[in-house]
Amino acid sequence: MTGTSTPIALDADFIQDPYTFYRRLRTEAPVREVVMPRGLKVWVVTRYADVRDALANPALHKDMRPVQELFQRHQTKSATNEFGADLSAHMLNSDPPDHTRLRKLVAKAFTMRRVELLRPRIEEITDNLLAGLSGEVDLVDEFAFPLPVTVICELLGVPQSDQDDFRGWSAALVSASAESVGAASMAMSGYLRALIDAKRANPADDMLSALVQTQDDGDELTDVELVSMAFLLLVAGHETTVNLIANGVLALLRNPDQLAALRGDPGLLPGAIEEFLRYDSPVNHATLRYTVEPTEIGGTTIPEGEFVVVSVTSANRDEARFGGGAETLDVTRPAGGHMAFGHGIHFCLGAPLARLEGQIAIGRLLDRFPNMTLATNADNLRWRNSTLLRGLEKLPVRVD
């Protein structure tokens, strides 16, 4: 069938609780037209089987260069502040063969073997941060954010003195609010261009210097590709891991039986990380796709020239895949099968790094502070104003 219902407008209630909305859609209209908070009209896919298929469907395109007309047609609000071209020409916004070429140039830096070599430094950063925690703290600001941002900035070669600026730009760029996106986009683009020029003039032992000099069978990244690749690696390399750590800790504190099970058997930790990724995924939905011809998903035909949003958060709570306990946290659940890192050719390149950081961060946090508790009622917690990411604004805890 072809959907013709009036689109549902997503609002602030959706930001704070997407699960109630998705639960209803999976039952009533698993492929449904909605209007995102910034005014873009899209089709959202919510069931696990449909999400998995859509993520690997080559009929759904990702190259954002030719779709300005689509944005104008489907934008229901005035939205002039969008990502600049310098930040958009990366792997997540490309299709083969461009995607294949771009991913090949950076994939070798994120193999499990290369990531494992980072373990001692990640442990050192973690221990230093934990040593500075005392009394009541905001775990997001003082632990979940600085750990992955320090790791990815050191990996890429971003000076420590610039990390606070970078955090502000990144937060604005993934926000559901359009007000500051344009300014943040220009600032981030200008900063990365200057940093790349500096690496070209004075190469160092870091990934950004390596990308500047990278050649593979005579291929190399253009200046625009370098800027957008650096942006993708920096933002994706920390934003999602911040949420993995904070969301995972909150899930444990709200489920003391699961916290006790994990404390009783630390060997459950790798599987527990997968469960945190499933239960409260750091990413709400995958980045935009669009149709270039009528495309059927889950029995609904989406017309040509429509945007499609694939909800990994909804898929990860689908009872058809995860059983009657899909809405509950279970650190003993068999690991795997979740869609938190995506599926298909765009599967998250940084998954090994995120998993390692999550295991070290949460494992050592629980070891150091066995009596950690929430320092506020869970109902007072607020989620960041983003439809792309699922992350807390703050997580107040008492650690001693």
Brief synopsis:
The chain is an alpha+beta fold and about 400 residues long. The protein is built from 18 helices and 11 strands. The protein starts with 7 loop residues before the first strand and ends with a strand.
The CATH superfamily turns out to be Cytochrome P450
Strand content: 5-15%
CATH class: Mainly Alpha
Structural class: alpha+beta
Question: Total helix count?
Answer: 18
Question: Helicity, in percent?
Answer: 40-55%
In spatial order, strands of the major sheet run: 1-2-3-9-6-4
Total beta strand runs: 11
Query: What value does the average pLDDT take?
Result: 90
What name does CATH use for the topology? Cytochrome p450
State the domain count. Answer: 1
Instruction: Choose one word for the global shape.
Output: globular
Head-to-tail CA distance between termini: 58 Å
Which architecture does the CATH hierarchy give at level 2? Orthogonal Bundle
What does this protein look like?
By secondary structure, the chain is an alpha+beta fold. Helix content is 48%, strand content 9%. Strand 7 and strand 8 (300-302) form a beta hairpin. Helix 9 (146-156) packs antiparallel against helix 13. The longest helix has 32 residues, at 223-254. The termini are far apart. The mean pLDDT is 90.
Set down the secondary structure blueprint:
Blueprint: E1 8-9, H1 12-16, H2 18-28, E2 31-35, E3 41-45, H3 48-55, E4 60-61, H4 68-74, H5 98-107, H6 112-116, H7 119-131, E5 136-138, H8 139-144, H9 146-156, H10 163-173, H11 181-201, H12 207-213, H13 223-254, H14 256-264, H15 269-279, E6 289-291, E7 295-297, E8 300-302, E9 307-310, H16 312-315, H17 319-322, H18 351-368, E10 373-374, E11 396-398
Parallel strand pairs: 1-2, 3-9
Antiparallel strand pairs: 2-3, 4-6, 5-11, 6-9, 7-8, 10-11
Helix pairs in contact: 7-9, 7-18, 9-13, 10-11, 11-13, 13-15, 13-18, 15-18
